[in-house]
Design brief:
Elements lengths: L4 H16 L12 E2 L9 E17 L11 E18 L5 E16 L2 E7 L17 E6 L5 E6 L1 H8 L6 H6 L2 H9 L10 E2 L4 E9 L5 E16 L2 E13 L3 H7 L10 E14 L4 E17 L11 E15 L2
Antiparallel strand pairs: 1-8, 2-3, 2-14, 3-4, 4-5, 4-6, 6-7, 9-10, 10-11, 11-12, 12-13, 13-14
């Protein structure tokens, strides 16, 4: 097998160290990868971002007749395809980006009943108020870490939505500054002076979730660089994310929570929060980012069983939160 002189030298050094166990001998490490977004004026990229939020309630076992019970599910799925064009950058690398909405899908189910099913690509939906968002946009400021530092201007999209005789609340919410920041800035790369990583290195950030009646939780998302590889002439970093519970932000979230917190009445029976990132180091662009959180709470009432029936009454609540960003050109 033919290989370059550089690769052969690296391999030979590694083999000698492994076989001879020479004192003080270490295999050479790969060069550090710089994890940052390269935001250049006039650069344009198309992305699709998908978010899902689902909460469900399921009853198991025997329940007394006086307890009205029905399994139910709330589900929201939003897909937005958008163009991101960099208009300018400053001396810190922050960029002003114009976001233009190209396609939109929105499905909302409340207590198992379909409330909204909109798809801008369907001809019958193109006259609906939600369609007024297509072709509209807003302006944001993005840091090289991916953080959306501020929402600069949403007037264009806001005026388009409110021009409808009955502006849909869901469309208005899609262009709320807080929601915009979440949509475009959920991934945070390491800060500039700590963004050169080698395989096995990691960084972290805090992410909080509001589960409404089940309270709020925050997690520390730990990102680990697994490998860098050549893909079609580009260097791509592959990063895995795993999370651990965090007390940071939890107290503040509890104070801001408007709904009662029933989580103390349930056992936290399990959760999983993982993700992955593919970052094009050559272009300085996100190829794909995915994260998914699944949580479950269980309340058991052993006294609710019938006489001679050992099966207790069980109330099981689950929550799923998904975010998926993918480059499409």
């Amino acid at each position: 097998m033919m290989m370059s002189h550089k690769i052969f030298s690296w391999l030979a050094s590694a083999v000698i160290c492994s076989l001879l166990l020479t004192a003080g001998c270490t295999a050479p490490t790969r060069d550090a990868a710089t994890l940052e977004l390269k935001l250049a004026p006039q650069d344009s990229t198309a992305y699709k971002v998908t978010t899902e939020m689902e909460d469900s309630v399921k009853f198991e076992g025997f329940l007394p007749d006086q307890i009205a019970s029905k399994d139910s599910r709330n589900h929201n799925r939003i897909e937005i395809t958008f163009d991101q064009r960099i208009q300018s950058t400053d001396d810190k690398g922050n960029a002003v980006a114009k976001i233009t909405i190209k396609k939109l899908k929105y499905v909302s189910i409340h207590r198992d009943n379909l409330v909204l099913d909109f798809d801008s690509s369907r001809e019958k939906d193109q006259d609906k108020p939600m369609a007024k968002l297509i072709g509209q946009g807003y302006t944001i400021e993005i840091a090289p870490t991916g953080e959306v530092t501020k929402v600069i201007d949403v007037k264009q999209a806001d005026q388009a939505v409110r021009s409808a005789s009955t502006p849909p609340k869901v469309a208005v919410r899609l262009i709320d500054p807080t929601v915009i920041k979440e949509r475009h800035g959920i991934l945070t790369l390491p800060v500039t002076d700590k963004n050169q990583l080698r395989t096995g290195d990691n960084w972290s950030s805090i992410k909080a979730f509001d589960f409404r009646m089940m309270g709020s939780k925050s997690y520390e998302r730990i990102y680990t660089l697994k490998e860098t590889k050549d893909t079609n002439g580009r260097q791509v970093a592959v990063i895995e994310m795993n999370a651990i519970p965090s007390s940071e932000m939890a107290e503040q979230l509890h104070k801001e929570q408007a709904t009662p917190d029933f989580s103390k009445l349930f056992d936290d029976s399990g959760w999983q929060y993982t993700g992955r990132l593919k970052l094009d180091l050559t272009a300085g662009k996100v190829e794909e980012y995915l994260e998914k959180l699944q949580s479950e709470w269980v309340a058991v009432d052993p006294s609710a069983g019938r006489e001679g029936d050992s099966e207790p009454a069980v109330l099981r609540m689950t929550a799923t939160r998904l975010y998926h960003l993918e480059k499409i050109d």
